[in-house]
């Protein structure tokens, strides 16, 4: 099993490298440091969101409220600071509290009310967005406060020539890797994803774990949103209406994290992010029109899901579980 | 003190009596202007107007709605907003519901050239007058109030040719940032860009990408284009709220002096601030407050006109303002609170 799993990740990595080579030969300025940084930078947000999505998917769940959580929490923080005169510190704390609440509601509905994750989070996304548009902010583009040290630090500083955006992605990836690989929490996540019934029978705290995962994922979405706002000096809630949630799933599934849970890790997300980055960057350089870009992206997602279902077939023994069965 | 008060009271009484008798006299001479005022106000009272924007919550639609709401409250006709929140599908449902409700006038902000065209024809057939605002469909209805997008595009392209064309000593390389590829603004502007650039062969279009109104996407595209073409001379884009992302990418690359960014927008304070910050160089503004006033005038005209729906088709292309650093320094830009 392990050997096959490596193959999917390997295939994607090989594909990414192959495309890199083709682009490097065909497109004159592809392999410059500047372009490579721009490439990674443009998919860093996607990568960070992929880490959050990856966590719940490994535990055999899904979080479709990810984008709404990110957009609404950060827009609220920005609206409080720029329009209502709040200090950034308390506003950031309030925003964190808000996403924790979203995560808790998601987790409790999924774990204790046993509503499938896909429906819970789909509905929660709409609820969160609706609450945001209705009460938390008026205009759908919120700008970061002028001369804010916090946002300038996130958006403008560089470490070893790398923008903070990329650094944030790498740091979060490292933390997630440590958590999944070296903590009890991480091992439990894999156990739950692999076979929730067995995990419960051997005494793992499956329900609290589900709640915890969703809270962590919501916090990751919050972090992604703050970095995104810093990078583009504002947050547009229209992102919620875009195809971003599918792009996040693309990164996760493409990298080889099986939708049936229990498989994959941070490395898969990095590989998936890299392939999407190379693809997008190459298509922009080649000036491929928008419609074709979307078409190419969706075909690749479709192929990835097909490959996923062949390589990670549903486990007949566990597929009947109500829990997070998507 | 007391005598003073009495005198004041007597004076005001006398004054009141004088004006009252004056009013009586004017009534008799027809100076109450009943002939014009009565049909004007009575014709509007109790009428029903419905507005279907692309979405609420951004400068253009919030600005128009604020102005239209104020007049509706003043003149006593109802004004409702059906917000489809960027979903053409929800907009289609909203319009279908409107057809059943039969309001007197529907104001439609079209997401693209085709989607609502048939529904609008059906509305007209059902006797509902249709006013299209700023983004039109291919089929004209009772009224269109909004920018002449071809003209906006021509002005934008000409400005870019001036900066990057013959004799400018630049590479002549320009990038186009489209908005929503199927929207009226986008298609008409694109036609204009390519028409102008065809007459100026020294302009080379090195990228033509859609940022779909998203500043983050505009930023990512611009970053990549700048890597490929470090000698880029100009960027022409569809909307200021989107192209500010391109400005951020140019600024991050330290090329604000080299790359000239032309865009169009509603002329709000946010846009002006972005010009001041050096993120954008020229906004061809279609002036939302002015468009709001034109909309109000069109609403009154349509509600009071004896013409049937679809009988007369009028267009008003709202005037354009060129907002640059110099213009912003000496003019005020609007914000939503002023309009409310």
UniProtKB/TrEMBL annotation, chain A:
It holds the Pfam family BPD_transp_2. The keyword RNA-binding does not apply. Keywords: Cell inner membrane, Cell membrane, Membrane, Transmembrane, Transmembrane helix, Transport. The chain crosses the membrane at residues 12-31, 37-57, 64-82, 88-110, 117-137, 157-180, 210-231, 243-262, 269-288. It is a multi-pass membrane protein. It comes from the Bacteria. It is found in: Cell membrane. Its main location: membrane. This is ABC transporter permease. It comes from Dongia sedimenti.
TrEMBL record, chain B:
Pfam families: Peripla_BP_4 (PF13407). Residues 1-25 form the signal peptide. It is found in: Cell envelope. Residues 51-304 form the Periplasmic binding protein domain. Its main location: other. Gene3D superfamilies: 3.40.50.2300. The keyword Signal applies. Keywords: Signal. The keyword Transcription does not apply. SUPFAM superfamilies: Periplasmic binding protein-like I. Belongs to the bacterial solute-binding protein 2 family. This is Sugar ABC transporter substrate-binding protein.
């Amino acid at each position: 099993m392990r050997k096959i799993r490596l193959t999917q990740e390997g295939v994607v990595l090989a594909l990414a490298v192959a495309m890199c080579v083709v682009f490097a030969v065909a497109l004159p300025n592809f392999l410059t440091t500047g372009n490579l940084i721009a490439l990674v930078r443009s998919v860093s947000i996607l990568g960070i969101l992929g880490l959050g999505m990856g966590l719940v998917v490994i535990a055999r769940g899904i979080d479709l409220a990810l984008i709404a959580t990110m957009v609404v929490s950060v827009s609220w923080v920005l609206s409080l600071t720029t329009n209502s005169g709040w200090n950034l510190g308390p506003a950031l704390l309030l925003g964190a509290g808000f996403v924790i609440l979203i995560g808790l509601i998601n987790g409790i509905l999924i774990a204790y009310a046993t509503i499938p994750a896909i429906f819970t989070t789909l509905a929660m996304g709409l609820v969160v967005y609706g609450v945001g548009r209705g009460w938390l902010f008026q205009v759908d583009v919120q700008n970061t406060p002028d001369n804010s040290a916090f946002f300038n630090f996130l958006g403008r500083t560089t470490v070893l020539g790398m923008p903070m955006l990329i650094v944030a992605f790498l740091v979060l990836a490292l933390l997630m890797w440590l958590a999944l690989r070296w903590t009890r929490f991480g091992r439990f996540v894999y156990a739950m994803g692999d076979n929730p019934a067995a995990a419960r029978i051997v005494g793992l705290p499956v329900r609290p774990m589900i709640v915890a995962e969703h809270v962590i994922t919501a916090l990751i979405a919050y972090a992604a949103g703050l970095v995104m706002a810093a990078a583009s000096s504002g947050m547009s809630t229209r992102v919620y209406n875009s195809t971003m949630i599918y792009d996040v799933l693309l990164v996760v599934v493409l990298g080889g994290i099986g939708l049936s849970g229990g498989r994959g890790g941070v490395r898969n997300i990095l590989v998936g992010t890299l392939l999407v980055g190379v693809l997008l960057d190459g298509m922009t350089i080649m000036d491929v029109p928008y419609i074709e870009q979307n078409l190419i992206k969706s075909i690749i997602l479709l192929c990835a899901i097909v490959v996923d279902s062949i390589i990670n077939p549903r486990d007949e023994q566990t597929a009947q579980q109500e829990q997070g069965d998507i | 003190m007391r005598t003073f008060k009495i005198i004041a009271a007597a004076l005001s009484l006398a004054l009141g009596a004088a004006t009252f008798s004056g009013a009586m006299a004017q009534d008799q001479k027809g100076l109450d202007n009943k002939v014009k005022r009565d049909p004007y106000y009575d014709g509007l009272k109790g009428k029903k107007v419905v507005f279907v924007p692309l979405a609420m919550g951004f400068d253009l639609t919030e600005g128009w709605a604020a102005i239209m709401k104020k007049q509706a409250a003043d003149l006593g006709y109802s004004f409702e907003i059906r917000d489809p929140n960027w979903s053409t599908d929800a907009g289609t449902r909203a319009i279908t519901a409107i057809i059943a409700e039969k309001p007197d006038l529907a104001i439609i902000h079209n997401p693209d050239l085709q989607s609502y065209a048939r529904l609008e024809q059906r509305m007209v057939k059902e006797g509902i007058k249709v006013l299209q605002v700023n983004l039109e469909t291919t089929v004209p209805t009772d009224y269109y109030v909004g920018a002449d997008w071809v003209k906006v595009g021509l002005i934008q392209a000409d400005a870019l040719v001036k900066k990057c064309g013959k004799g400018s000593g630049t590479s002549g390389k320009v990038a186009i940032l489209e908005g929503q590829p199927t929207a009226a603004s986008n298609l008409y502007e694109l036609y204009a860009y390519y028409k102008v650039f065809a007459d100026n062969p020294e302009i080379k279009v090195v990228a033509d990408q859609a940022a779909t109104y998203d500043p983050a996407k505009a930023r990512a595209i611009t970053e990549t284009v700048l890597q490929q073409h470090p000698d880029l001379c100009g960027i022409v884009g569809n909307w200021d709220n989107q192209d500010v992302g391109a400005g951020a990418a140019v600024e991050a690359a330290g090329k604000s002096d080299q790359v000239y960014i032309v865009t169009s927008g509603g002329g709000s304070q946010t846009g002006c601030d972005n010009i001041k910050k050096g993120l954008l160089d020229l906004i061809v503004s279609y002036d939302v407050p002015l468009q709001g006033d034109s909309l109000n005038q069109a609403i009154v005209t349509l509600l009071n006109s004896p013409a049937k729906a679809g009988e007369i088709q009028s267009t008003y292309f709202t005037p354009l303002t060129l907002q640059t650093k110099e213009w912003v320094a000496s003019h005020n830009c609007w914000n939503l609170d002023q309009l409310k």
